[in-house]
Amino acid sequence: MADVVGYVFPNEHHIHWSLMIVTYPYITGIIAGAFIVSSLYHVFHVKALKPVSRFALIFALSFGICCTWPLLNHLGHPERCFNIMLTPHPTSAMAGFGYVYSTYMIILLLEILFIYRAVFARLLPQTTGFKATLYRALTFGNTDLSPATLRFDHKVTSWLALIGIPMACVLHGYVGFIFGGVKAVHWWLTPLMPVIFLLSACVSGIAGIILGYLLVQWWKRRPVDEECLSTLVKYLWGFLILDVVLELLDLGVHAYLRVESWHVLEHLISGPLFTSFIVMQILIFSFIPLVILGVLTLANVRGKALQILATLSAVMLLIQVYCMRWNVVIGGQMVSKSGRGYTFYHPGFFEKEGILPTILILLAPVIILFFLAKVFPLWMTEEGQNPQPIKNFN
User: What is the extent of the structural domain holding 183?
Assistant: First the structure.
């Protein structure tokens, strides 16, 4: 149910784009960010990121599988979802998303299959039953491990990663474009919206990779590759700086110009969005990680301190990006077209698009990642060996 303050038109009492529409760009952002982490190794040869390069791809795939779930839950008739692609309208921005998402997922799957072909070929002789049949199918019957074939796999993988980078950027930049293209909502109407969405996607994706990598290593009692973690922290800090600065600059331009819409937005920021935007998104979950990551990078911190502070920053930034999505999606709908009133949104816990379905949708990629890891070895070396746990882990 929504509360209202001031002059609000009758058709604005209900917030139509709910938690599901907040969650949808959040998941697509993590996909794009995770894919870029993998591409930094496969395309730009950032060798330090090799330990997480395959994990990042499977991580992106698990979130990619769940990407459309919030939208399907939001739709009144999810069985009609393919109509948007089968009978597209040239002015429909969402139809374009369907094509971009489908193309990106095909590229992602192809890259994963080419990367894992040699791994599956090495595992086949020691595998039986259904798993052996599955591995044979995933190699397309090609178990050749000659240097020429491995070079071909590597070449195709590099090209797919190269093509995937702009696709990942378009995938999430397009989400920002959809919001930025809604001219009636002053809070969304900025050409920087796709760029801000893309940068925050990189932040959430890298933060997700850091958190996932550290949790798995701790759970398996394996040593953490500090060079890899330190490199991830540096990239996370860099993208966070760009993200925060660009978002504040965009807000600063609106404040300086003081056009008509600003008088509505300043009351939105200082009123209904003060806690979620100023306090949570900016002061707590942006500036504190910004300082922590800066210290980790400039002081070259290592050991347990690096792992703990990197985990803390990753968790805070995952919350920060979700706050950003909330403030954009819900905040934009709070402003009445009268310019003199606001609508408030309080999601229910058990309702169809409420808190519980949101938690389940956000947990689903983690569960899918667990099962995908049973098929796709995440940490196995190129020689087909798993890293061993350390005896005195603490």
Answer: 11-379
